[in-house]
Specification:
The protein is α+β, with helices and mostly antiparallel strands. Helices cover 22% and strands 23% of the residues. It has a five-stranded antiparallel β-sheet. The protein has a three-stranded antiparallel β-sheet with strand order 3-7-8, with no helix packed on it. It is globular, with a radius of gyration of 23 Å.
Length: 296
């Protein structure tokens, strides 16, 4: 599943009017005659480049959408995140509570209300708003969604499966462009895992240094625990005595998983028994189970 946000443009724009007046004039006091739309590039999955649509997606099909809202005070948040990781800062490892985060950096209730009002005016049903105000989830027909976001959805044959995706980049009225960061749920393409692995890993430390780990030696060509530690640059932490005992790790999954696979991996390498709990996250993509796995 791809999400439309402000990135490079991959879509054709022919035949799409993004500057015409908007239907819901009462939401925009400036007047319909001058209302314009701000486009969100990057909606078309690159995997579909060169494919010819089978036909337009049925207007009556139901979509699950997730509208991402922009953060407030981004510069302050960036500085705070840096200070929280700086041992010399008074904010070192002093983290915000969820309510503190919302009050300082999350979208305001007024912003949420504006987006909810717009979605409702477009015959889209708001199903939930995340506690941090960052996502407004909604459902509606393809026809209503196309009208709301000035987008056209087509069906494609992708790896012998019919999927839907935009033929152009979506857009929203200018009055919402400063608060809407992304539009999720406009396609249901399932990105399949790569059959081969890059055997050079980039550490998650913000540097460009790469660590070659050679040929993977796990069963079936998978990673061993030692190779994973090298790939994520945690050898130095382990050498310093930080081996993760008593800590929980969150893994974001865009599909279901089998805990038996994890148990088998742990058993093979004598890693002990795992303790897992699922935290389900509502929203798109509609055909996938969206879950977060917490393992300790």
């Amino acid at each position: 599943m791809a999400t439309a946000l402000r990135t490079h443009d991959l879509c054709s724009t022919s035949g799409i009017d993004r500057t015409g007046p908007h239907d819901q004039c009462h939401l925009y006091p400036s007047g319909c005659a001058t209302a314009t739309h701000d486009t969100y590039p990057g909606a078309c999955p690159p995997a579909l480049n060169g494919l010819t649509p089978i036909h337009p997606t049925a207007k009556s099909n139901i979509l699950k959408l997730s509208i991402g809202l922009d953060l407030r005070n981004r510069n302050t948040l960036t500085a705070l995140l840096a200070a929280q990781e700086n041992p010399g800062s008074p904010y070192y490892h002093h983290y915000l509570t969820p309510s503190q985060f919302v009050s300082q950096f999350g979208p305001t209730q007024a912003t949420v209300n504006l987006v909810v009002q717009y979605l409702n005016s477009q015959n889209l049903t708001v199903t939930s708003v995340t506690p941090n105000h960052l996502f407004v989830n909604a459902t509606g027909t393809v026809g209503a969604t196309e009208k709301a976001f000035n987008v056209v959805l087509n069906d494609y044959n992708f790896h012998n499966r019919v999927i839907y995706a935009p033929a152009n980049n979506p857009s929203v009225p200018d009055t919402l462009s400063d608060v809407i960061q992304s539009i999720g749920g406009l396609n249901n393409i399932q990105l399949l895992p790569l059959t081969g692995m890059h055997h050079t890993a980039r550490p998650l430390t913000g540097t460009s240094k790469r660590h070659p780990i050679g040929v993977l030696t796990g069963p079936g060509g998978g990673y061993t625990p030692t190779e994973l530690r090298t790939a994520y640059s945690v050898d130095s932490l382990i050498s310093a005595g930080s081996n993760g005992t008593g800590q929980s790790i969150g893994v974001f999954e865009l599909d279901g998983y089998q805990s038996s696979d994890i148990d088998q991996y742990r058993s093979y390498y004598n890693l002990g028994t795992g303790n897992y709990s699922n935290i389900l996250v509502d929203g798109p993509p509609p055909i996938l189970e969206v879950a977060q796995l917490r393992s300790s």
